[in-house]
Write a structure and sequence with these properties.
Blueprint: E1 5-16, H1 22-31, E2 36-39, H2 54-61, E3 75-77, H3 99-105, H4 111-120, E4 124-125, H5 133-145, E5 149-151, E6 153-154, H6 196-202, E7 206-208, E8 212-219, E9 222-230, E10 233-244, H7 250-257, E11 269-271, E12 276-282, E13 297-299, H8 316-321, E14 331-335, H9 340-346, H10 351-358, E15 364-371, E16 377-381, E17 387-390, H11 395-415, E18 419-421, H12 437-442, E19 451-453, E20 483-485, H13 500-519
Parallel strand pairs: 1-2, 1-10, 2-7, 3-19, 10-20
Antiparallel strand pairs: 4-6, 5-13, 8-9, 9-10, 11-16, 12-15, 12-18, 12-19, 14-15, 16-17
Length: 520
C-alpha cells in the first residue's frame, strides 16, 4: 500500500498567496535576508502557454473556473488562481488610491511604498498613440457630456498583440530581470508573476505552486506555521510568522477553516465587491473594441470619496428618474470589452435575437459601471469548507448603480450609439434617452441583470478600534500574534478604484513591519 508523501519545511515566514499582496511581501522579506516560502494554490504558468481557448484558460487562471458566485447567484466573482493571482488576468490599470479615503481610514503614509511598487511594476503613463478605438469613442462621449475623464497609467510594456484576450493572460509578458543582470526591456503585462515573484525567487524565496493551504498552525496564541496539500501528499511548514495573502474571499475562509480565535466576530464580515454592470452601445462605425489596450481611459466624474454631494446638474436624467442619495459613494465609468465569448455572455436575449446582436460585435462599445459600494456582505463556510459568499445590494447602492447605468447610456448616446444594450435576460430595446426610464423601472433584481465583481475586499479589516477591526495598522492579527494579512482583506471599506496598487503598497508596508517583528 502506497503512503502519501508528508514533506516538512522550516522557514522564517510562510506567505499564503502570490498575487498583488503575497508577491510583494515575499520579495521585500527575501531581499531583507529573511527566509520565505510562498504557497500558491494554482499553477505556475509559463506566459507563452496562454492560449485563446477560453474554457481552458478559465479553468487554469480562475477559482471555480471563473464561475465563483455570491450565494444567491446574482454576482459573478472573478478571482485569479495561479502564481501572480488576479494580476495575471487584470487589465493593468495602475491607479493610486484616493488620498482623502486613506486619510479617513487612518492608513499610514503610503507614498514611499507606492513609489517602490510603481517602479518594480514598470508603471507608466499610457500614451495617446496607445488609446484604441474603443477608449477613443468613450472619451468622445465623455467630452460631449462635459464630464471629467482621464487617460490612465498602466503596468504594461510594449505588446503588438495587446487586446481583449489579455483577460486570459498575456503570452508576451517578459519577466523582470533580477538585480545585477543585463537590463531587458519589459514587454507585455507586468503581472506579479513576471515582476515580484522572479525577484523574490532570485533573493532566495522558495515557491510551492499547486499547493493548497489547509490550516494556519497556532501554538500559545502565536502563528507557527501552515499545513498544506500538494498533489503528491501533505506539506507542513514551521515558521516564525505567517502571512495571509490569498485574497478577500480565501483569506477569511482559511482563518475560519483553521478555527483561529476571534476577538470581535468580524472575520469574514465587511465584504465589499465593487459590483459592476455592463452597458453596451451599438454604433454605425466599426470600433473593433477587442483590439488594442482594453482599458486606457476612465471617467471619475461620479466617484465621491470626500463626503460631498455630486453635482445634480451632472445627473439630471438619473436624478429625475431615480433620485438616488450620495455620500462617500458613486461609481467609475470604465471602457469594457472582451473576446466573443465574454461579450456573448454579457449581451441580452436568446436565439435569433442574440445572434443578431453578436453579428454587430465589431460595432459595439461598452462601459462598466464600477460601484463604490456601501453594501457589506460576509464570507463564511459551507459544510465542506468552501467559502459561502453572502452579499445583496442595499437600496442606496441599487439606486446609485441604476444611476450609473443611465449615465453610461447617456455617454454612449452622446458618442453616437444607435441602441443601448443592457445585460438583462431579455433584449430590451433602448433607442432614445426617453427609453432610459426602462432601466430605472426594471431596477436591479438578482439574476435579472448580470453583475460582476473582480475586486472583493474588506473581510479582515485593518483599523485602530479593537471592537471593529481584525488586524492592527501593522497588519498583524489582533487575536493571533505573528499572523499578518497583506491583501485586499485589509481595506476598512470599499476603495472605489481599481485596487492593485493599493494592495501592493499596503503589502510593502506590512512587509517592513514583519521585518521589525522578526528582527526582535
Amino acid at each position: 500500500m502506497n503512503k502519501s508523501r508528508h514533506a516538512r519545511e522550516t522557514t522564517d515566514v510562510c506567505v499564503i498567496g502570490s498575487g498583488a499582496g503575497g508577491a510583494v511581501v515575499a520579495k521585500e522579506l527575501a531581499e531583507a535576508g529573511i527566509s520565505v516560502i510562498i504557497l500558491e494554490a494554482g499553477e505556475h504558468h509559463e506566459p507563452s502557454t496562454f492560449t485563446e481557448y477560453e474554457p481552458d484558460m478559465l479553468r487554469r487562471l480562475f477559482w471555480d473556473s471563473g464561475l465563483r458566485r455570491t450565494r444567491d447567484g446574482a454576482i459573478l466573482i472573478s478571482q485569479g488562481r495561479g502564481v501572480g493571482g488576479s494580476t495575471v488576468h487584470n487589465f493593468c490599470y495602475a491607479v493610486r488610491p484616493p488620498q482623502p479615503l486613506l486619510d479617513r481610514w487612518g492608513i499610514p503614509e503610503l507614498s514611499s511604498a507606492l513609489a517602490r511598487v510603481e517602479e518594480t511594476l514598470n508603471v507608466k503613463q499610457i500614451e495617446e498613440s496607445e488609446v484604441n478605438r474603443l477608449n477613443a469613442v468613450i472619451r468622445r462621449g465623455c467630452e460631449a457630456m462635459g464630464w471629467r475623464g482621464t487617460v490612465q497609467r498602466h503596468n504594461r510594456g510594449a505588446c503588438a498583440a495587446c487586446g481583449a484576450r489579455c483577460l486570459f493572460g498575456c503570452p508576451n509578458s517578459t519577466p523582470t530581470e533580477p538585480v545585477g543582470a543585463v537590463s531587458k526591456r519589459a514587454a507585455g503585462k507586468q503581472s506579479m508573476a513576471v515582476t515580484y515573484i522572479p525577484l523574490a525567487l532570485a533573493a532566495g524565496a522558495r515557491l510551492y505552486s499547486n499547493c493548497l493551504a489547509e490550516a494556519v498552525l497556532v501554538e500559545n496564541g502565536k502563528a507557527v506555521g501552515v499545513s498544506a496539500r500538494l498533489p503528491s501528499g501533505e506539506l507542513t511548514i514551521r515558521s516564525k510568522a505567517v502571512v495571509l495573502a490569498a485574497g478577500a474571499i480565501n483569506s477569511p475562509q482559511l482563518w475560519l477553516k483553521s478555527r483561529l480565535p476571534e476577538l470581535n466576530r468580524h472575520v469574514g464580515r465587511n465584504l465589499h465587491l465593487h459590483p459592476a454592470v455592463f452597458v453596451g452601445g451599438i454604433f454605425d462605425e466599426i470600433i473593433d473594441g477587442h483590439l488594442g489596450i482594453p482599458q486606457s481611459y476612465y471617467i471619475d466624474e461620479f466617484l465621491d470619496v470626500e463626503d460631498a454631494r455630486l453635482q445634480s446638474a451632472h445627473i439630471s436624467t438619473a436624478d429625475r428618474v431615480c433620485n438616488p442619495p450620495h455620500t462617500d459613494s458613486g461609481y467609475l465609468l470604465m471602457p469594457a470589452f472582451g473576446s466573443q465569448m465574454i461579450v456573448a455572455a454579457s449581451l441580452p436575449g436568446f436565439g435569433k435575437s442574440h445572434r443578431e446582436l453578436m453579428e454587430r460585435y465589431r460595432h459595439i462599445a461598452a462601459l462598466l459601471v464600477l460601484l463604490h459600494d456601501k453594501t457589506s456582505g460576509r464570507v463564511s463556510l459551507n459544510r465542506d469548507g468552501t467559502p459561502r459568499i453572502a452579499y445583496r445590494l442595499n437600496r442606496e447602492d441599487k439606486a446609485v448603480l441604476i444611476e450609473g447605468a443611465i449615465n453610461a447610456a447617456r455617454l454612449l448616446f452622446a458618442a453616437g450609439a444607435r441602441e443601448i444594450l443592457m445585460p438583462y435576460t431579455q433584449h430590451v430595446r433602448i433607442k432614445t434617452e426617453a427609453d432610459l426610464e426602462i432601466i430605472c423601472q426594471r431596477g436591479v433584481v438578482p439574476n435579472d441583470v448580470m453583475l460582476a465583481s473582480s475586486h472583493p475586499q474588506g473581510t479582515l479589516r485593518m483599523g485602530e478600534d479593537a471592537a471593529t477591526s481584525v488586524v492592527t495598522f501593522s497588519g498583524e492579527a489582533r487575536a493571533v500574534r505573528n499572523l499578518f494579512v497583506a491583501d485586499a482583506s485589509l481595506f476598512p471599506a470599499s476603495i472605489g478604484v481599481p485596487p492593485t496598487l493599493t494592495i501592493a503598497a499596503l503589502a510593502d508596508y506590512v512587509a517592513h513591519q514583519i521585518v521589525r517583528t522578526i528582527a526582535t
